[in-house]
Amino acid sequence: MGKKGRAALWVVGLSIICGLIIWHVAHWYSTGMYLEMFNWVGTDKTYMTVLYNLGLILALGIVLGFLMEKITDLIGYKVGEIKHFEGEETDGNR
Prior knowledge:
Blueprint: H1 3-31, H2 33-39, H3 46-75
Helix pairs in contact: 1-3
């Protein structure tokens, strides 16, 4: 399997993971769990709400980052080497 085939498998897998995370959020919203967690704010369970939301943001952000990388691999976009001006000798005339 070539590079594009592996990238296609990664795109499918990461898309499924994103879908499951989104489904989880929609399911908890529809069952009222988020409302219950919102009521925990101001109690001794506040840290659980904060950690849950931070973990959710972190997990979805990482998965989306990898998904975007694999999509660009699948499309075949290549970034050429960027020439930096550091180290070049200049004669002062521009």
